[in-house]
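Consider this today:
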Amino acid sequence: MNVFDPKHTLLNFLKKLSVSLIYLAAMFFSADAKEAKPNILIILLDDAGYADFGFMGCEDLETPNIDRLADRGIVFTDAHVTATVCSPSRAGLLTGRYQQRFGHECNIPPEDSGMDPAEITIADVLKTAGYQTYMIGKWHVGNRSSYHPNTRGFDEFYGFLEGGRDYFPNAELDRPASYKAILRNRQQIDFEGYLTDVFTDQAIRYIEANGESPFFMFLSYNAVHTPMHAKQEDLDRYQGHTRQKLAAMTWNVDQNIGRVLDKLEELQLSENTLIFFLSDNGGAESNQSSNEPLKGWKGNKYEGGHRVPFIVSWPLQIDGGLRYYKLTSALDIFATSIVAAGLEKTPGNPLDGVDLIPFLSGESTKAPHDKLFWRKDRMAAMRHGYFKLVRLEGFGYRLYSLKDNAGEDVDLSESHSGQLASMIKDLKEWEAELASPLWYEDENWNEVTYEIHQALMENREPHYITPNQMRAYKAEIK
């Protein structure tokens, strides 16, 4: 069955009708209509591969709890984040807007930069709807006070500000002056154990303590980002596995997500909790993740860099166990959430995302997005339906049809010159709306990324994929 099956549409209409009657009854008999608002939970993984979950067909990594969530929700097979690296992707998710509109195009430098304080976050907006707001885990959109989660709409924060850190206590990192230290709100604290477990412990405490108000929780795990640290018991489980550390880390984060799902069920909150599950970008080469059958990985503009595993679950409103194949974006999380919370629009700048519920219910048969865009420094791309345009400044364009070439290795620029010209025009018109990047990344990494991108466009192996390999390669060819 798919989401456009007529029987499904009728059954879903009847279900929605019954749910609406329940909601009306609740509003009539309750003094507080806010009880009908769903809790909203975003579960974000870090650098997870498109193909590294059971619900996506993976056979060598175990994800029974995430698969359970997929069975209860909708699996999106053509869903995308707005950037192929961590910080700008998170800025797009938190604001519901292309982050290039406010100059947040690249990963942020560690010191003074951060997500534009003038931008309204999803937490800011949900607070106006009566939500308690919780941020747990990796932040990575600014370290200074004006960029801190407690300044950006979150009532409570438990996590770290920088882009990555050790999973076990580290005296060098766990000190007040470090942006990688664990904070409870603005206060540095020590922790014991394995960080993925610790973040889950805190998430469960917040859920238990929330009381009668609806909550919004951004549960932002740093798993499975490097360093590849895993608990010994999990490593032992995968002794001899070709991807032992990734398998152990994936198993652990899956078990922890299961703990959160179990707590929601125990407290009878699961039916009316809107859950989004995704990765912040495509799987990274550095952690052995797999994006098959997609081309590319974290950091480049091929599908493996920005197409991600994506689940939406809200049992009270949408049927589960289905797959949705049309073009979707992490930008849609903000728009879907505020509508679910009973708000008509955001008080901030116009959103680039859309409310997904009409598309999942069968109310709309269109795709949520006809076009999506990406840009980071000298690399850019766009989707128009199943057509994909890739641009590398100073090198040129490639055009692919993902309908019959998911591996993006057959260039259609000459045979589809009209489509190429049209998409180049669309990309340039979108770029005309953007701000200039407020910062750039390390020059060595920029050069490495350029080589990787050029190699992918030429259907060859990169000469190097790290700065050290680049220096060695250049020394060898002299």
Q: What stands out?
A: The radius of gyration is 22 Å. Residues 371-477 form a domain with the Arylsulfatase, C-terminal domain fold (CATH 3.30.1120.10). Residues 280 and 364 are 27 Å apart (CA to CA).
